[in-house]
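User: structure tokens for this one?
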Amino acid sequence: MAKRAETAAATRQALLDAASALLDSGGVDAVTLREVGSGAGVSRSAAYRHFDDKDDLLMALATAAWNALAARLRALAADPALDPDEALRGALGVTVRVARTRPHLYRLMFARPTGDATAAVQAVTLAQDAFLAIVGRIVEHPALPVAGLLFATAHGIADLELSGHLPPDKWGVDGDGIIDLLVRTISN
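Assistant:
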């Protein structure tokens, strides 16, 4: 019985890996259960045994991405070697870096969920709580609204970079420079 569960878990992971590669190469439209199965080297019907439909598969990808982001943010929050400013700069940077390196995944993470979003909401909550812990190390007054402002700003930086509306030659600063400005402003 354990062997069957291990095989099923390995197949599911192979399907997620194939879906992730398709998403990176062509966006949400490139992800089809048929192509995912083919990319994972399994039968076409295998994807349907692990995911109800394409939306279920995409939700699993978004959830995994939020869990990975939450893990990175928790590591920053727990790192005693980082001063609070460095931790905040890292947290804002890691959020923007997802958009820079995997724009289709980033858009999927911030898309309105379809289907059962319970696991995704839990993952988002973990990420937001870790981010709040980082902001709470800097801000003396209630950190929640400041964390919301910073998180929204990081998302704005990412979105503006993705759309090409944050050219450094126009604004005199790139996204990383804005992050530095934010950290200096919050720390003062």
